[in-house]
Amino acid sequence: MFPYNDPQTVLELHRQHVAELTAHAAARRLAREARETGPARARRFGRWPRRARAEQPAPAAAVA
Fold this sequence. Notes:
The protein is mainly α. 55% of the residues lie in helices and 0% in strands. It contains two helices and no strands. The N and C termini lie far apart (69 Å). The model has no long low-confidence stretch (mean pLDDT 76).
C-alpha cells in the first residue's frame, strides 16, 4: 500500500490523474473532429426541435 497521508504523494497522484484526464479529453476531441464532416451542428438527444416548440400556441390559463 502507498502512504496516502504524505502531502507530496497526494499531490503527485492528483497531478497524474489530471494528466490522464487531459490526455483522454484530447483523444476524444481529436476523434470527434475527425468524425465531423461539414458544418458543426449540435445534437439534441431526446428533445423536439426548437422551431416546432416555438410555433405551438401558449397554453390557455384556466379560469376558476
